[in-house]
Amino acid sequence: MATTIATTQKKNQTLVALYAAIITFLTYATVYGFRKGFTVCTFEGISFAGISYKTWLVISQVVGYTMSKFFGIKFIAELKRIGRGKLILFLTGISWAGLFLFAIVPAPYNIAFMFVNGFPLGMIWGIVFSYVEGRKATDFIGAALAVSFIFSSGFVKTVAKSLELQFNLSELWVPFFTGLAFAIPLVVFVWLLEKVPAPSEEDVQSRTTRLPMTKEKRRDFIRTFFGGIVTVVIIYVFSTIFRDIRDNFMADMLKEMGYANDPALFTKTETPTTLIILVIVGSMVMIRNNFKALVYSHWFILLGFIISGGSSYLFIQNQLSPVWWITLVGLGLYMTYIPFNCIFFERLIATFKFPGNVGFLIYLADSFGYLGSVGVLVTKEVLHIKLQWTNFYSHGVVVLSFIGALGTILSLFYFSAKFKKEKTALWASEQLLS
Fold it and tell me: How large is the greatest C-alpha to C-alpha distance in the chain, in angstroms?
C-alpha cells in the first residue's frame, strides 16, 4: 500500500513538473513577442547625432531593461505570491502601449518609447520564475523556462520578419503587430500559469523554503558570499553583453554575411541550441546533491566559453561557415548564460541553505549585465568604432571567452572552499555537542 502511494505521488510530481515546464516556457516565449520584434528591422540609412537609429532603439530599450533589473533587486526579492498573473499582464500591457506610441510618434522622439517598452518587461522573468523555484524539479522546469528565450528569440524574429514581408509593414509598425500576434496566447498561458501548484513538503525539504528577502537579508547574503558573488557577476556581465549584442544585431550580422531575406534562418539557428541546452541542463535534475550540481554547472559554463571562443576563432580564420558560426557561438554563449537563470543560483541557495529566493540573485546579476551591455553599445558609438558588427562581435567573443573561462575557474575554487569550510565547521559543532 505504501509503495503504491509513493508511486502515485512520484507520478503526480512528474506531471506537475512537466506542466510547469511547458507553461512557463510558453508564457515567457509569448512575452518575447513584445520585446524583440523591432530587432529584425535595420532602419538603414537613418541616424541621429552620428549614431544609427537602430542603435538608439537598442540602447533605449536596454536602458529601460537595465533600470528595471536594478529596481527588481528589491521588487522581485520582496515579491509576494498574490496577484502575480495580473501583474504580468499589466506590465506587458504597458510595454505594448510603448510599441504603439513608438509607431505613431515621429523619429527621433519615438526612441524614448523603447525605454517604456523595456522597463516593465524586465520584471517579468522574476515573476514567472517565482512560480517554479524551490522544487526538486526546478532544474528541469527552470531549464525549460530559460531556453524559452533562445527559441522565442529566433521564433519572434521569424514571425516579425514574415509579418513585415507578407503585409508590407512599415518598420515602425513591425514591433506593435508582432506583439498583437502574441497577445491572446499570453492571456491564455498566464491563466494556465496561475494553476501551477505550490511546492510540496518534499520540495521544501530538498531545496529549502523560499522567502521574500528584506534589505537586511539581502545585505547578509552579499556579506556572506561577497567574493563569489563579485566573480559570478563579472562572468555574467561578459556573457550578457555578447548574448545581448547577438540577440539585437543578429539580423545586421546575417545581412553583412549575405542572408538578409531568409526569416526562417532565425529559428533554424536557435532551435538546435534550444534542444541541446534543454536536454543537458534539464538532466541536472537527476543530481540530488546540491553542491555537486553547483560544481557541474561551473564545468558546463566553462565548456560554453570554450565553444563560443573556439568557434569565433575558427570563423575569424575562415575555417567555419557563417551559419555554423552563428549557431555555435549562440550555443556556447547560452551555455554560459542559461545556468545562472535556472541552476546556478537555485543550487547555491540550496547548498548553503540560506533563507531567500533566486529572484534577488538573478536580478542582481542581470542589472550589472545589462548595464555592461549598454556601456559597450554607447562606447562603440561615442568612440566611432566603425567595425562591422560581424567583425566587432567575433573578435570580442574571443576576448570574452578567455576572461569568462578564467572567472569561472576562480568561482569554482571560491564556492568549493566555502562549502568545505562550512562542512568542517558543522562537523566540529556536532563533535562538541556529542
Answer: 78
Q: How far is CA 122 from CA 95, 131, 143, 225, 314, in A?
A: 10, 17, 19, 25, 35
> For residue 341, what are the CA distances in angstroms to 60, 311, 322, 337?
24, 24, 28, 7
On whether the CB atoms of residues 67 and 278 are closer than 8 A, the answer is no
CA–centroid distance for 109 within its chain: 29
Beta carbons within 8 Å of 110's beta carbon, 6+ residues apart: 101, 102, 103, 104, 172
Residues 6+ apart with CB under 8 A from 68: 118, 119, 120, 121, 122, 123
How many angstroms separate the CA atoms of 44 and 120, rounded? 28
| Residue whose grid cell is 566573480 | 231
> What pLDDT sits at residue 426?
53
CA dihedral 18, 23, 25, 28 (to 10 degrees): -160
Specify whether the CB–CB gap between 86 and 221 falls below 8 A: no
Q: How far is Cα 412 from Cα 249, in angstroms, rounded to an integer?
A: 32
User: What is the C-alpha separation between 65 and 388, in angstroms, rounded?
Assistant: 25
Residue 272: asked if its preceding bond is cis (omega within 30°), the reply is no
Contact between residue 64 and residue 187 where contact means Cβ atoms under 8 Å apart: no
CA distances from 343 to 10, 87, 103, 111, 311 (A): 22, 25, 39, 36, 25
CA 17 to chain centre: 20
CATH superfamily of 13-194+213-422: MFS general substrate transporter like domains (1.20.1250.20)
Confidence (pLDDT) at 207? 65
Query: pLDDT under 70 in the chain at which residues?
Result: 1-11, 207-210, 260-264, 266, 382-387, 425-434
Using DSSP, state whether 51 is helix, strand or coil.
strand
List Cβ neighbours of 356 (8 Å cut-off, separation of 6 or more): 77, 210, 211, 213, 217, 218, 221, 349
The whole-angstrom distance between residue 163's C-alpha and the CA centroid of its chain comes to 26
pTM for the full predicted model = 0.77
At 174, the amino acid letter reads V
434 alpha carbon, distance to own chain's centre: 47
Q: Which helix (H) or strand (E) holds 52?
A: strand 51-52
Q: What is the 3-state secondary structure (H, E, C) of 376-402?
A: HHHHHHHCCCCCCHHHHHHHHHHHHHH
